[in-house]
């Protein structure tokens, strides 16, 4: 994962009342590769509960900047995005959460981009939303729209990390149907298959290997389980005995 592109992304928390939420937000950020945290007029910070909830993201807390107003937090940014569980009555330019990442990453190459989160009880005030160019609402169950602050931070940071791109981790191929044969079992099956196919003169030992590779790929796609592999070996043995 190239975390460099996420360096210019700033998380701004306005007027937090629970220090635990600040710690949990720092952890949510760092786990997604985002480390720039600015706190606007926090009610209890620093605080041991914030440290406890941050766990391995203590450095994000220690480097957090504390400022008095939202303007102080975002004045050097090229773009600021408000987050809210409610849409204001005067609709503000919304960005669908799945489009947030590309929007933010495009702008953050130039100047910092701020994602702004509101107070636990009252969210962002209208005048604060209006200092931001866009608004993002994370889709939720309409009967329970409001997320815990750190959960909202986690989801937004996850979207940003996914938009930035993660290295594809190899998927372990799990055989859904039965015991998985070992690589060695499969290797021995391939050898048996080719020997039998040469015996019955389907394969020419002198010929190029393409057909062997295609057969290997065919069985790789089939992901034989141990029973199926035994059946294939049984068929080959029966063919061998016919000669
Ligand atoms: N009653 C408040 C709750 C705020 S929760 C309200 O509805 O605004 C604290 C913060 O978490 C919010 O200000 C917002 O920044 C973020 N948040 C919570 N739920 C969210 C959602 N569904 N979409 C976007 N942000 C959300």
- The geometry reads as elongated
Bound molecules: S-adenosyl-L-homocysteine
Strand content: 5-15%
Number of domains: 2
Arithmetic mean pLDDT: 91
Unreliable segments of 5+ consecutive residues: none
- Total number of strands: 6
Helix content: 40-55%
Can you summarize the main beta sheet? 6 strands, parallel
Our measurement of the CA-to-CA distance between the termini, rounded to an integer number of angstroms, reads 57 Å
Order of helices and strands: EHEHHEHEHEHEHHHH
Q: Supply Rg.
A: 28 Å
The CATH architecture of the largest domain would be 3-Layer(aba) Sandwich
Order of strands, widest sheet: 3-2-1-5-4-6
Class of secondary structure makeup: alpha/beta
CATH-defined superfamily of the largest domain: SPOUT methyltransferase, trefoil knot domain
CATH fold-level topology of the largest domain: Alpha/beta knot
Subunit arrangement of the protein: single chain
Question: Gist?
Answer:
The chain has helices spanning 19-31, 48-54, 58-62, 70-74, 97-107, 126-129, 149-164, 183-199, 210-222, 226-242, and strands spanning 9-14, 36-40, 65-67, 79-83, 113-117, 134-136. With 243 residues, the protein is of the alpha/beta class. The longest helix is centred in the C-terminal third of the chain and has 17 residues, at 183-199.
What does this structure look like?
- By secondary structure, the protein is an alpha/beta fold.
- It has two domains: 3-167, Alpha/beta knot; 183-242, Helicase, Ruva Protein, domain 3.
- It has helices at 19-31, 48-54, 58-62, 70-74, 97-107, 126-129, 149-164, 183-199, 210-222, 226-242; strands spanning 9-14, 36-40, 65-67, 79-83, 113-117, 134-136.
- It has a six-stranded parallel beta sheet.
- Helix 1 (19-31) runs parallel beside helix 2 (48-54) and helix 1 (19-31) packs parallel to helix 7 (149-164).
- The mean pLDDT is 91.
- The structure holds S-adenosyl-L-homocysteine.
- The site of S-adenosyl-L-homocysteine (SAH) has 19 residues, from helix 7.
């Amino acid at each position: 994962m190239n975390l460099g592109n996420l360096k210019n992304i700033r998380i701004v928390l306005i007027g937090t009342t629970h220090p635990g939420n600040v710690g949990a937000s720092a952890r949510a950020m760092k786990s997604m590769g985002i480390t720039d945290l600015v706190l606007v007029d926090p009610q209890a910070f620093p605080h041991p509960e914030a440290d406890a909830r941050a766990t391995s993201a203590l450095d994000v807390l220690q480097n957090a900047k504390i400022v008095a107003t939202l303007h102080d937090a975002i004045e050097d940014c090229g773009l600021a995005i408000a987050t809210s569980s409610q849409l204001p009555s005067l609709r503000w330019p919304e960005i669908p959460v799945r489009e947030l990442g590309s929007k933010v990453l495009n702008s953050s190459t130039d100047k910092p981009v701020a994602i702004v989160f509101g107070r636990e009880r009252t969210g962002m005030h209208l005048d604060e939303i209006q200092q931001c160019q866009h608004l993002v609402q994370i889709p939720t169950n309409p009967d329970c729209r409001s997320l815990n602050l750190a959960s909202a931070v986690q989801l937004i940071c996850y979207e940003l990390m996914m938009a930035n791109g993660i290295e594809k981790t190899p998927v372990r191929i799990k055989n859904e149907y039965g015991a998985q044969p070992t690589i060695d079992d499969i290797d021995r099956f391939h050898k048996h298959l080719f020997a039998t196919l040469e015996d019955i003169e389907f394969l020419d030992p002198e010929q190029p290997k393409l057909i062997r590779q295609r057969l290997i790929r065919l069985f790789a796609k089939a992901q034989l389980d141990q029973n199926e592999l035994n059946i294939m070996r049984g068929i080959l043995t029966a063919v061998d005995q016919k000669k």
